[in-house]
Amino acid sequence: MTALAQPIPRPGLGRLSQIELRKMSDTRAGFWLLLTIVLMAAAIVTITLIAGNADDKDFTSLFQGALWVVSILLPVLGILAVTSEWSQRTALTTFALVPERERVIGAKVIAAIALGLGAVVACLLTAAIGNLIVGGSWDLNSSLLGNAAVFEVAGMLGGVAFGLVFMNSALAIVLYYLLPTVWTILGETIHALDKPADWLDTSRTMQPLVDDQMTGQAWAHLGTSVAVWVGVVLLIGLWRLRRTELK
Amino acid sequence: MIAVDHLTKRYGSQLAVDDISFRCEPGTVTGFLGPNGAGKSTTLRMICGLTPPSAGAATVLDRPYRKLDNPGRRVGVLLDASAQHSGRTGREVLAVSAAVLGVAPSRVGELLDLVGLSKAAARKRVGAYSLGMRQRLGIAHALLGDPSVLILDEPANGLDPEGIYWMRGLLRDFADRAGTVLLSSHLLAEVEAVADQLVMIGNGRIVAQGAKSELLAASGVIVRGLDPVALHEALAAAGLTATPGADGALLVEAEAEAVGRAAAEAGLVLLELRPADTGGLEQLFLSLTREEALVA
């Protein structure tokens, strides 16, 4: 038995983040999801090489294609990283070992950021392999790299926020994917919602990121939408987590 | 050491746990008994800081659980053996927690050996485990941080008789090394064999608590005579209360000597006179369970 007088340090945020990253990939679901994401990136690059227009067969275009495809499924990893604690009831263990609940979520956020950045690297690699085969131009704007990082990380964090606020996999996933569609429909049918949609519809605000057409106005739109759908949602989720009973 | 002071949990108008207080000292095993739905799990979750109490407080090692420096290194907790990710292997479950606790990765193998999970079993995903294997994994998990307090909710559920026997030995040994053990169960026989102290609850309230030996002694004697009716009268005449049991036996809340004297004075022949053992406790426990069934 560990002597009582001897203080035992708590796990630091760095170690907890590494552990959360590990937990995203050490389950059957996590492993296959990651593999599927990589395979989808490889598939879109392959399809572009075979059937794409000639002007799409360069490094930048292949990279952009991979970014889009990866961004579709990546947030599911973020959602499941939180909701699996409830659906699999591991929250009982997780929060018994680390009672400061915000620290666990902080670690999940850091892990999500790391995975988002990892996804960008994976997209770069996939696009590079494709471009080697097709022998296209290697030109890549450095601004696109930063945009790509913001794009994938924001998606990942949105997943974490939605997972935390609903604490339920099905609900979080459905609403996460439904919301942009709802915005699109509402924004196009109801004229009064068209302006707010410029600021709040993430599918609109994120488009210029991947197209590499970010202006000051575009950054303001993006910042607002991310602050709402990631920041505010995450804060509500944290508030809920602090009060909730874990069983 | 665990101290529970006036813990109360209210869900709307329903009192799940009603003003519960008890203490668990180092070197002892405390059996927390009660029918299903009596409030045992809610109490244990409140002790571990997972469920906020409506009133009262609990401390473990003189601190609220959530204020312990690295709780998993102080307190081994098993609240639900089924609450593990079904897609993770048994070994990985322990490895992840070993990393959180900051213990050597080699502990994982040691504990798998200790709880009798083979290498092949440890490589399987928890989803493929039987409840007994999950309990073993859960106990390994609780012991991972080398704690001095164990809090286990229904750890014997799903274990086979050999497994239950093994677990008793493990808990006894843990307590004998100055550890504190609190384990819950809805089966009296299960904890009776290992606990020194019993806390019995029904409908969220404590109905009996104390040292097992005291609770058993307080349960009286069983006496059977050749003429049950005459014996009942003789006992009543001596001022002893007797409750009729099966096949003419009487449960008497008195010392064996008093019962024997009363029978001798009336010149009655006794066929049996022995301590009621768990009989009294069992009766109390069964009446709790029956109440529960009536309410349901």
How does this model look, in words?
The complex is a heterodimer of chains A (247) and B (296). In chain A, 80% of the residues lie in helices and 0% in strands. Chain A is built from 10 helices and no strands. Chain A has helices at residues 13-25, 28-51, 59-87, 91-97, 101-134, 142-166, 169-189, 194-200, 202-211, 216-243. In chain A, helix 2 (28-51) packs antiparallel against helix 3, helix 3 (59-87) runs parallel beside helix 6 (142-166) and helix 9 crosses helix 10 (216-243). Chain B is α/β, with parallel strands linked by helices. In chain B, 39% of the residues lie in helices and 26% in strands. Chain B is built from 12 helices and 13 strands. Chain B has helices at 40-47, 71-74, 90-101, 106-114, 119-123, 131-143, 161-176, 188-192, 212-217, 228-237, 256-265, 279-295, and strands spanning 2-11, 14-24, 29-33, 55-60, 75-78, 149-153, 180-185, 197-202, 205-211, 221-225, 242-244, 249-252, 270-275. In chain B, helix 3 crosses helix 4, helix 4 packs across helix 6 and helix 10 (228-237) packs across helix 11 (256-265). The model of chain B has no long low-confidence stretch (mean pLDDT 90). The interface between A and B is large, with 36 and 43 residues.
Which sequence of SSEs, written as H and E, runs from N to C of chain A? HHHHHHHHHH
- The proportion of residues in beta strands of chain A is under 5%
Helical content of chain A stands at over 70%
- Rg result of chain A: 20 Å
Number of helices of chain A: 10
As a percent range, the share of strand residues of chain B is: 25-35%
Q: Span from first to last CA of chain A?
A: 28 Å
Average pLDDT across residues of chain B? 90
Oligomer: heterodimer
Spans where pLDDT lies below 50 across 5 or more residues of chain B: none
User: Segments of chain A where pLDDT lies below 50 for 5+ residues?
Assistant: none
Q: Biggest sheet of chain B, strands in spatial order?
A: 5-6-7-3-8-9
- Biggest pleated-sheet summary of chain A: none
Content-based structural category of chain B: alpha/beta
The greatest interface between two protein chains, and residues involved on each side, is:
A-B, 36 and 43 residues
Tell me the total number of β-strands of chain A: 0
Largest sheet report of chain B:
6 strands, mixed
Please state the average pLDDT score of chain A. 93
Our Rg estimate of chain B from Cα atoms comes to 23 Å
Instruction: Tell me, briefly, the overall form of chain A.
Output: globular
